[in-house]
Input
Amino acid sequence: MVQIELRPLDGRPPLGGWLPPVSLGESGEQVLAAVADCLIPPGEGFPAPSDVDVVTFVERYVAAPGEEARWYPFLAHEELRSWLAALGESFLRAGPDARTQSLAGLERDDPEFFGRVRDTVYVGYYSRPEVVRAINRQLPAGRDYRATPQPFGYSDTIADWDEDLLARVKGEYLATEDIVALHIPDEIRSLGRARHTPGADGLPGDAAATREAESGTP
Output
């Protein structure tokens, strides 16, 4: 079996993320899965993030160990592992309300880092095929939602044009074959040339041309 490894020289995650993913360790993965489930609770036909492997998505975009987090999602491996370790077993044993309070405290203490984790979980979750299908099934406005809109677009949910309204729209245009060249008088052409050459008295071209036009004497 051939193992593919993607590691660009500039440290930027390739499309689809690192192969193989950066490991957060077994305990880190468990805590991250619990964090994701707390951020996006399952229900009403939508799966839990832990059921659609959001953790692997995050691991595929975290900066590799020893590398600076210079690219989206701006999550360094060591920093994220330390953050998850601080939550630890107590977070896994806590109930839903306690988990929510714990994350609210972390958001308050370090909103920037918390926002990076939250946003990466969101992107991972809503790009999973199972979640896209849930959107199609559960949301009337999402019946033709696709993780990659093009080339199909969203024609199924765009409202039909109001034909009566369009019928009242009046406009005009000039056909290409009816366009004729505009004759520019020689005196106007000479003014245009004068703008680009110095005048006899040393004035800038445009100033000299303006004076000549006003006086009527070249």
Observations:
- The first helix runs from residue 25 to 39.
- The CA atoms of residues 101 and 107 lie 10 Å apart.
